[in-house]
Amino acid sequence: MGKWDSSAAELQPVVEPVEAALDEVIEEATTWLAARQADDGHWLFELEADATIPAEYILLNHYLGDIDDPVEEKIAKYLRRVQGSHGGWPLYHDGDFNISATVKAYYALKLVGDDPDAPHMTRARNAVLAHGGAAKANVFTRITLALFGQVPWRAVPWMRPEAMFLPKWSPFHIEKVSYWSRTVMVPLFVLAALKPRARNPRDVSIRELFVVPPEEQKNYLRNPTGRRIGDVLLALDRVGRLCDPLFPAFLERKAIDKAMAFVKQRFNGEDGLGGIFPAMANTVMAIDALGFPRDDPDFVTARRAVDKLLVIRNDEAYCQPCMSPVWDTGLALHAMLETGARQTDPVVSGACEWLRGRQILDVRGDWASRRPDVRPGGWAFQYWNDAYPDVDDAAVVVMGLHRADDEKYREAIARGAEWIIGMQSASGGWGAFDADNEHYGLNNIPFADHGALLDPPSADVTARCLGMLAQLGYTRENPIVARALNFLKREQEEDGSWFGRWGTNYVYGTWSVLSALNAIGEDPAVPYVRKAVQWLKSRQHEDGGWGEDCASYWQEHRGKVEAKASTPSQTAWAVLGLMAVGEVDSGQVERGIDYLLAAPRDGGKWHETFYNAVGFPRVFYLTYHGYSGYFPLWALARYRNLRQGNARTTMYGI
User: Fold this and answer.
1) What is 48-319's CATH topology?
2) Is the pTM of this model over 0.85?
3) Which residues are catalytic?
């Protein structure tokens, strides 16, 4: 990027403006990121979802009768601010109206004391009614409404705690669904059996959100897939309700005890069941429904786990769906290493030591039911979640430790890789938390209307694992690698991209796979790689950046991959993906770098309003507030490294 001024008496390098800007931005962003590292070495950034989680926090308070007006009013301000122009609440910034999020947000605001005739409430109510009323909300919303007596219990799928006794060979077993479904469903079994009623001290109702009075509504349940088996299961749901009186009380009691034993075994202290808000909230309500006093240690701990998710500012507050310290720390570590930091630097050594201390070595989590002979060795997503280590996190951490100091962290790296290898599914891919979690028939049960009951292998997680294996020295001849490569080739979309299960969306998935293919030594000239490269290039915006709308998770909105504004994190992914296959000198990469250099930021935090990740496609979206910090820094630093080193690609797996 430099050139020589031959007119000078002595040849001197002339630094182009972009070179100086690159160094300046990298320095500022590095300083910013380092300053946000905790004293013990980890990073944690806010994790924001849509309006449902803050609304559910208010609903939980009123269910328990533990109203906290100061905090709830701050949450109400947040909810009012994120209301959409369509009158309702979307699942992500500038998204379409979502009836389930809107019903919960409206109810929460009414519980706090908002006048139902206030303009914002009127707009929300009219939007709900125009979309068929609250009866059209999803299963989880209707469960909440049933707990508050707003709909009859027949509005929710038939659930019995006796499901805990089903054998593994039965069509449904708790181990056949994903970890997040498991931890949410088990305490729900208890609530469905006991059918408790929310305290609701202010006796707030939302009957005005129903087109037909809720007790007169006939068909609440829907076939989630439209397949014939779904109709059969709807019929079985009706039959099951008729059998309710036949279940003996002693068996129900034993089933509830078994469900709560499941919860207690995975209680996870103040990090909460499964480390996720819905499971934590259901745990609190189940303990309460069983009659435990408020000073019971389990209730106190479960409640604290929920409260720790709050983000409270001077004027607003919201509740996070979970915390992401291991993920944030692993990715921030990679960004810092890319800037040139070494193991001897406190910022690197602190992160590595913290991560080493979070490795799960002694707990055989739920994953062991499928892999009983595999030793533990993974990392969770949250501070602690020993029963549910995350394959994606583990691969990122292993690569970070290996890059920082492969000798010092040899044992941790080896155990992590051993566990990840053991978690490979028969298809050759990796899921996030379980192996071979592909019981697709369960997507037809009425409970599964959210479409995220399972945790099958995905391209992005598989790419992370393949990149890790390559970085550790595994070659294409290794059968583990060969199966993973074949899986990724099968998963490529017709247009050349890869689906992003955990990040938005095809840009994220394509970056992930191209990084892994580079690490394993795939020829960047082979047709399927060139097809991916051309897809990425074709999605670049006029301003030089990339930006993909969350609506791309709906097949009919696939084209919205470029419908919204460019974002720093998605631009960083695209640039990293292109550089992984030798495109460092391409015009597209140069324009992407220029976009990142010019994009508004505060120190090392680029401005980013659009959501950048997904919990459940088409149902639950996220914005990682750290992404617009460490990913742009990572991309800029790698660009500088490749240019200064006159290199085409990187040697790392991510």
Assistant:
1) Glycosyltransferase (1.50.10)
2) yes
3) 392
